[in-house]
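Why should sequence recovery work at all? Because a backbone constrains its sequence more than one might expect. Tight turns favour small or flexible residues, buried strands favour hydrophobic ones, and helices have their own preferences. The token representation captures these environments compactly. In the example below, the structure is given first.
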């Protein structure tokens, strides 16, 4: 089953997205892709995750050539 996305824009220009995933690896990949896309638009990210998921997400970000330490120092990733 392919991932499904629902984006609901609101009047402020923000949106909510719903993504479905099959396992922890695909979750980490989806979150990292979403966060990386935001970074490319010079946006910040707040990730709320379990320690295990956070570790996997950070590994995925690094695999996508994101300098995680730098974006955390700049306050762009919390």
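From this structural description, the recovered sequence reads:
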């Amino acid at each position: 089953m392919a991932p499904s996305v629902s984006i609901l824009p609101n009047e402020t220009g923000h949106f909510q997205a719903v993504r479905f995933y099959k396992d922890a690896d695909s979750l980490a990949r989806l979150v990292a892709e979403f966060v990386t896309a935001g970074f490319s638009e010079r946006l910040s990210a707040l990730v709320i995750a379990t320690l295990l998921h956070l570790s996997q997400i950070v590994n995925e970000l690094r695999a996508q050539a994101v300098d995680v330490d730098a974006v955390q120092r700049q306050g762009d990733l919390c």
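A few observations help interpret the result. Residues 23-78 form one domain.
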